[in-house]
Design a protein that fits this description.
- The complex is a heterodimer of chains A (219) and B (246).
- Chain A has one domain.
- In chain A, 62% of the residues lie in helices and 0% in strands.
- Chain A has helices spanning 14-21, 37-42, 47-71, 80-102, 104-110, 112-115, 121-129, 136-166, 174-178, 194-211.
- In chain A, α3 (47-71) runs antiparallel to α4 and α3 (47-71) runs antiparallel to α8 (136-166).
- Chain A starts with 13 loop residues before the first helix and ends in an 8-residue tail after the last helix.
- Residues 1-5 of chain A have low confidence and may be disordered.
- Chain B is of the alpha+beta class and 246 residues long.
- Chain B is built from six helices and nine strands, in the order ααβββαββββαββαα.
- In chain B, α1 (4-48) packs across α2 (58-65).
- The mean pLDDT of chain B is 89.
- The chains are: A mainly alpha (219), B alpha+beta (246).
- Chain A binds chain B through residues 74-79, 82-83, 86, 90, 93-94, 97-98, 100-102, 104-105, 111, and chain B through 2, 6-7, 10-11, 14-15, 18, 21-22, 25-26, 29, 32-33, 36, 39-40, 55, 162.
């Protein structure tokens, strides 16, 4: 509430761009902050639910960040967590209702995990750490950036799990068309189980740390 | 600092606004959701009669194959019949019956009605009986398709609200459901046996009753038993009706 400046900043100033882009890589909510792991393991067996989950989190996090940022000067500090939760919960219920009405099959696959977006640490974390103290536009970028940072990991994990576990991409039988099964290839059923998501996330973290010098910890 | 009064007013207004938004959304989206649930139900019914459908063509296929929707009472009398889109008797549509409520009425010895769907496929009649019961964590339900001799199973589908993934949840897989095909619910003397889900596999039971049993799911004993109970509780309601037809 105190770091606001009076002079106008360009919409995509260096600082604002960093808000959007940092969470994609060196401040990634999943691989660096290790938040939101639970849903990352649960909904990534197939690309389609992972994509819908990513989209839902983008919607919820971006909008709730903006709402909290707009309300930030009126929210009594003593009940701020409650207010944040009410905003998140209402948005999640809205998203859930929309999914049930328009993409019923996917909503069935995601089952409780849409509801559990409420407890996704990334969202509460961003509201408390960023939206409570920043203007709506930076809050919008920050929410968007973090949600996309979460989403792309989900989609990458889901891509490998679906390809290696079920032999399909977005339900399309790629490996079957390539004729790999005739050569004796078999799907790895292990990829469908949650532990493999953890291992893939681990590999992403490994690659990311190896490539990005900022992330290498000093001994 | 904010006063207590401010906090009270703030939270009251917030709650009222949120309640208004959510209830409006729920009301506007209800018709779409109800339609999805109905389509889901139709797909389950069709699937038990081995008719594959998608969310898009389910309604069309349902109208094509399900010729009659019969409602029967405790004594096996037909109280309502809905044929090809119009009532020929009574005014209860079998498709709309809430099985949970009827089973409750039955347990309380109140009046109850059960639905029976008649499917016509390749010139043969298939009788589809909806199922509903308790699983380990929540409700389980399904559809049970009998051939025109009211004995042989044509197919069956099960669904569940939240059985344990990998264990009890396996009841909704093709592999489990496929076992029921060709089994019989009456023994050679004509007594009702239902179909038992046998823990340890049907190899453990005598040869002559294997046609009334299927293999249970390892690690899913309670769900497997629930399926047995559900089949017994739901199918027995149709015995008076079946007796009259024979």
């Amino acid at each position: 509430m105190n770091s606001e400046k009076n002079e106008r900043e360009p919409l995509f100033s260096f600082k604002n761009r960093k808000l959007l882009l940092n969470p994609l890589n060196k401040d990634n909510p999943i691989t660096i902050q290790v938040l939101g792991i639970c849903s990352a393991l649960a909904v990534t067996a197939k690309l389609e639910p992972a994509f819908v989950m990513a989209l839902s989190v983008i919607v919820v996090l971006t909008i709730s960040n903006v709402i909290i940022s707009l309300l930030r000067n009126g929210i009594p500090p003593r009940i701020r967590i409650i207010v944040q939760l009410v905003v998140i919960a209402s948005l999640v219920i809205l998203v859930d209702q929309f999914l049930k009405a328009f993409v019923f099959d996917i909503s069935k696959q995601l089952s409780v995990f849409v509801g559990l977006i409420i407890t996704n640490c990334i969202i509460m974390g961003r509201l408390e750490a960023f939206a409570m103290g920043n203007k709506p536009w930076p809050a919008f970028l920050d929410g968007m950036g973090n949600a996309i940072g979460y989403g792309w990991i989900l989609i990458v994990v889901a891509f490998f799990r679906e390809l290696l576990g079920s032999g399909t991409i977005w339900g399309y039988p790629v490996l079957d068309k390539l004729g790999l099964y005739d050569l004796g290839y078999k799907n790895n059923g292990f990829m469908i189980l949650p532990p493999m998501a953890l291992i893939i996330v681990g590999i992403i973290i490994w690659i990311q740390r190896a490539r990005n010098k900022d992330l290498i910890e000093e001994k | 600092m904010y006063s207590n009064k401010y906090i009270f007013i703030y939270s009251s207004i917030m709650v009222i606004i949120v309640a208004a938004i959510l209830s409006t959304a729920a009301m506007l989206l209800k018709p779409f959701q109800d339609r999805n649930i109905a389509v889901e139900k139709m797909r389950g019914i069709l699937s038990s009669a081995n008719i594959e459908s998608t969310a898009d063509n389910a309604i069309k296929l349902y109208d094509k194959y399900i010729k009659e929707e019969i409602v029967i009472d405790a004594s096996g009398e037909i109280v309502s019949n809905y044929e090809n889109g119009s009532f020929t008797k009574g005014d209860i549509r079998a498709f709309d019956i809430d099985l949970k409520k009827e089973l409750y009425n039955k347990s309380k010895k109140l009046n109850y009605f059960f639905p029976l769907l008649v499917c016509e496929k390749d010139g043969k009649k298939i009788y589809i009986i909806p199922l509903y019961g308790k699983g380990l964590w929540g409700p389980i339900w399904g559809y049970f398709a009998l051939s025109d001799d009211y004995n042989k199973v044509v197919g069956v589908t099960f669904a569940h609200k939240g059985e344990t993934p990998g264990l009890g949840a396996e009841i909704d897989t093709k592999a489990f459901q496929q076992q029921f095909v060709g089994k019989q619910i009456f023994n050679d003397k004509g007594d009702f046996t239902s179909i038992k889900v046998v823990k340890g596999g049907i190899d453990l039971i005598p040869e002559n009753i294997r046609k009334h049993g299927v293999d249970a799911i390892s690690g899913g004993t309670i769900t497997s038993n629930s399926v047995s109970d559900m089949l017994n509780d739901c199918l027995e309601n149709y015995l008076p009706y079946i007796k009259k037809q024979k």
